[in-house]
Each structure stands twice: as structure tokens, then as C-alpha cells.
Specification:
It contains six helices and no strands.
Length: 134
């Protein structure tokens, strides 16, 4: 079992400072991106772990969200909220999407051996339900 060390996020100087970081990221400033990650990487990861229950998947979600921040930093509108809220909401949405995708794949996961003998007249839903009852 992996133990996650919690390090408190660095205090935000102000919402304006975070907005300035995003403006710099929009101009492709790598140092600004590193600063944003230093401030919010840990809270984003801990939120993803809490929602997903898996460390590897949480890391993937946080990476995807920060990559999206790099691509879409210019779309942030400081009049609509704070950077922290925007970022953590993005993590939450990505984690929930990941959960929904896993659940959907799990429901549809039927071994090929079970459907190999099916014909066009067979009811696929009945085959899946019979598999779930076993």
C-alpha cells in the first residue's frame, strides 16, 4: 500500500496572483506552470484519489487536467471565479468522467467465449444478463 504524504498547498497570494499565473501560462511560460502545479498539484491529486480510490488513475486524471490547463489557460475568466475552484472543479469532472467510463465498460465486459456461438437472431441483452447471473 502506498502512503501519500500530505503537504499543505502554498498559500495563494491572491486570486489576482493566480490569474496572473494563468495569463503567463497562456503565453507558454513554463515557470508559471511549475508554480501553479506547486500550489495546486497536491490538492488536485488528493481530490482525485478520494474520488477514484486508485492512485494510478488519480495521477492520470491530474496529469490530464494540468495538460488541459496548459492548452486552455487563455480560456480562464477571472470574473467567473477563482483559479483554485476552476482547477479543482476540472479535476472533479475528469474523475467522475473516468468513473462513469469504467462502470460502463464493466457492464459491457462479456468474455468473447460467451458470445462466439451467437447468431443474428440471438438477443444480446439476454446473453449479457445470463452472464451477470452466473
Amino acid at each position: 500500500m502506498t502512503v501519500v504524504q500530505f503537504t499543505a498547498p502554498q498559500p495563494t497570494l491572491s486570486p489576482a496572483a493566480d490569474s496572473a499565473l494563468l495569463a503567463a501560462i497562456a503565453a507558454r511560460d513554463g515557470a508559471a506552470f511549475a508554480e501553479l502545479y506547486a500550489r495546486y498539484g497536491t490538492p488536485a491529486y488528493l481530490l482525485a484519489v478520494r474520488l477514484l480510490g486508485e492512485h494510478d488513475t488519480a495521477e492520470d486524471v491530474v496529469q490530464e487536467v494540468f495538460f488541459a490547463v496548459w492548452r486552455r489557460a487563455a480560456s480562464f475568466d477571472p470574473t467567473r471565479g477563482h483559479v483554485e475552484s476552476w482547477l479543482l472543479t476540472s479535476v472533479r469532472h475528469a474523475a467522475i468522467s473516468r468513473l462513469r467510463g469504467k462502470q460502463g465498460r464493466a457492464r459491457c465486459d462479456v468474455p468473447i467465449e460467451r458470445i462466439a456461438g451467437l447468431t443474428a437472431r440471438d438477443d444480446p441483452q439476454a446473453v449479457v444478463e445470463a452472464h451477470e447471473l452466473r
